Amino acid sequence: MKKYLCLAYEEQKILDELSSDEWTALRAETLAYVAVLEKMGRLVRTNALQSARTAKTVRVRGGERSVLDGPYAETKEQLGGFFLIEAKDLDEAVELASRWPSARFGSIEVRPIEDALREDRRY
Question: What pairing do the DSSP bridges indicate for beta strands 2-11 and 107-112?
Answer without folding.
Answer: antiparallel
